[in-house]
Specification:
mainly alpha; about 75% helix; about 200 residues
Length: about 200
């Protein structure tokens, strides 16, 4: 015979009521906890949605501001003059150089730069995905290749600071114009933090 059966009716009723009341309290507690947890989750979710909306609006405003800045820069007389000067000097750049490395050497150096120096940093910032330059480099004109070689590959400044090169002493009109406009455009980038975007 069980211990519960040995108890008098009075004690059996009391134990039954206590157990029933305890189960009811535990059940109520669990339901209250679930409701509060659900409410807290709802509150957290709502806060995250408000935060996301706020950041989205901030980003839209930032891009709107940058778009305006770029439009203003594009209409600036200095920018228009620089574009004209660079367009004409681009056409004569190769013929003005005293010494031209071979096209193969230039292509190999550019490919190596984008695979190694640039590629290492690119992979760090892009979940180990490598940059695919195989379709870009062959499409560049000889002048574009030489400019990339001279101003990026042969640039003594490290990756992330290539823009610090103010002047290349190769006697070309392109380099003279680069020197002429560099400070103004570098200042514009610094002032408007576009270097973070570009």
């Amino acid at each position: 015979m069980s211990l519960f059966a040995k108890l008098s009716l009075k004690y059996r009723l009391m134990v039954s009521f206590v157990l029933t009341a305890s189960l009811a309290m535990i059940g109520t507690g669990i339901m209250t906890w679930y409701k509060k947890t659900g409410t807290l989750m709802d509150i957290a979710e709502e806060r995250l949605m408000v935060f996301r909306e706020s950041k989205g609006n901030q980003l839209e405003e930032a891009f709107k501001t940058m778009r305006g800045q770029v439009k203003t820069l594009a209409k600036n007389r200095l920018t228009i003059e620089a574009m004209k000067d660079f367009s004409t000097s681009f056409k004569t750049y190769n013929s003005e150089l005293a010494e031209l490395p071979s096209e193969d050497r230039i292509k190999n150096a550019i490919t190596s730069y984008y695979s190694n120096q640039f590629g290492v940093e690119f992979r760090k910032q892009n979940d180990e995905v490598s940059p695919d330059t195989s379709g870009i480099i062959p499409k560049l004109s000889k002048t574009a290749l030489i400019l990339q070689y001279n101003y990026i590959v042969e640039n003594e400044h490290p990756l992330g600071s290539k823009n610090l090169l103010e002047k290349k002493s190769d006697g070309t009109k392109w380099s003279a114009f680069h020197s002429k406009y560099h400070e103004s455009f570098a200042q514009y980038l610094d002032d408007y933090i576009l270097s973070e975007v570009i």
